[in-house]
Each structure stands twice: as structure tokens, then as C-alpha cells.
Design goal:
Elements lengths: L1 E6 L5 E2 L2 E2 L2 E2 L1 H9 L7 H13 L4 E6 L5 H7 L6 E4 L3
Parallel strand pairs: 1-5, 4-6
Antiparallel strand pairs: 2-3, 5-6
Length: 87
């Protein structure tokens, strides 16, 4: 149903802005254009693989922030970046 990656970043960035949600297609375009680079590429590729293999949604959040996991699970908008399947 839902995969959570707790990392040392707040989410996937476009410049300095955290992207709150994106489709796999959008993320692949961001990798191809260099917006997503470096150490984020393996993280994003792992999330994309999970979503392509049936996980309904994947999230990347900052695991260093106290209570971030609870905020993701129990708030309407969550934190970090949400990757949703393309239906």
C-alpha cells in the first residue's frame, strides 16, 4: 500500500523548493533533465521501482526530524514528497 523512505533530506527538491507530490513520469523527466541528481537518483529510482511493481504510493521524508513519521501518517497533507502511481 504505502512505502516510506526516511532519509537525511526533507524530500525531493526542484531548486530550493520541496516537491510535495509527483508522478513517476514527472520524476523520470526530472532525473533526465538533471533536476534530480547525485545521491537522490538511487533513492528516487528505488521509489519508482516500488511504485512500478505495485506499491500504491511512496513517500520520502526527513527521518532526522522528530515526529516526522507521525506527521506523514496522521496528517492530511503529510511531509516530504509523495510519489503516486499513474492511473
Amino acid at each position: 500500500e504505502k512505502l516510506l523512505f526516511l532519509t537525511d533530506v526533507k524530500g525531493i527538491k526542484n531548486g530550493e523548493e520541496i516537491i510535495s507530490e509527483a508522478s513517476p513520469r514527472e520524476l523520470q523527466r526530472m532525473i533526465d533533465s538533471g533536476v534530480i541528481s547525485g545521491g537522490m537518483i538511487p533513492k528516487v529510482n528505488a521509489l519508482l521501482a516500488a511504485v512500478s511493481q505495485g506499491v500504491k504510493s511512496a513517500h520520502i521524508i526527513d527521518g532526522r526530524v522528530p515526529h516526522n513519521l507521525l506527521a506523514e501518517l496522521f496528517t492530511e497533507h503529510g511531509v516530504g514528497t509523495w510519489i503516486h502511481r499513474q492511473d
